[in-house]
Specification:
mainly alpha, 0% strand
Length: 127
């Protein structure tokens, strides 16, 4: 039952991520998310069928633990992407507000923020 709940949670997070962050879902990321969604649905169907069958409960429990771990890891990665997107958006807004401030200190801060924004965007381009 715990495995089923973990898979449903993963499917829910995948759907939310696709609705809220469609701009992040391109190229290889789109293919990976589609594959992950298909795998989660496969696990869901497997767990539904396993609950109705006469398979060895210990083997099912062992497989269920693997599914729980995999679903949890996938959720962590998706939530990390969410966090990166939020941080980039927040820094970008701050950067725009600081563009109108003059002075050497603010110019240095602007340059540093630009460096941070570029560094934060690099990992997203690899997804």
């Amino acid at each position: 039952m715990e495995g089923y709940i973990a898979v449903i949670s993963l499917l829910h997070i995948l759907e939310q991520f696709q609705e809220i962050h469609p701009v992040l879902i391109q190229g290889q990321t789109a293919k990976t998310l589609e594959s992950l969604h298909n795998t989660a649905e496969y696990f869901q169907n497997f767990l539904e069928e396993a609950s109705k069958s006469r398979f060895d409960p210990e083997k099912i429990k062992s497989i269920e633990e693997i599914i729980i771990s995999a679903a949890s890891d996938a959720e962590d990665v998706i939530e990390m992407c969410w966090t990166w997107d939020f941080l980039i958006d927040s820094i970008s807004r701050s950067y725009r507000m600081l563009q109108h401030v003059e002075g050497d200190i603010m110019q240095g801060l602007d340059e540093n923020l630009g460096i941070v924004v570029r560094r934060l965007m690099e990992p997203l381009s690899d997804l």
